[in-house]
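Example record used in the benchmark description.
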Amino acid sequence: MLNELLIVKKIKEGDIKTFEHVFRLYYSSLSFYAFSITGNSEISEEIVQELFYQLWKERENLNILRSLKSYLYGAVRNQALQHCEHLNVRERHKRFILSKKNNTPTDTPQEHLEYKELEEVINRTLQLLPNRRRRIFGMHRFEGLKYKEIAEQLSLSVKTIEAEMTKAYQTLRKEIEKYTYTL
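Model output (structure tokens):
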């Protein structure tokens, strides 16, 4: 435990060699662990890469109260489960939309109007996004491309794509919350 506290202290101080050592030591086993939860090797690697990216980015604020190994495995577990939950929500939404299309319309005029208003809010918000962010968002959401594919097409890093998507979602979420609050 004392050795791990020293490792965390060195990482907090910006010791890149110690960070690289931890990365090499845990990357494979963390990826395998994430895979055991998600069943997708590409997603599993992205989860672990994002964990280490955030670990380095936020190193000065690290507050690890248990072992480093436990911290890393717990973070991977949480992200993998969150990814699975996200997939479940998307699948339920997809089934709901498909069931609505296959059934006779039961929307009230009020529901139809609210849907159209929300659609307008979303479209307006997308138009306000910076060009690159709007393009990346469109490639992912409307063309169905994965972050890696977008990164390759635009000659950007996957981390840049992730950051742009995060910012796009945050902007959309704020605007939708404003809209739903007024209902």
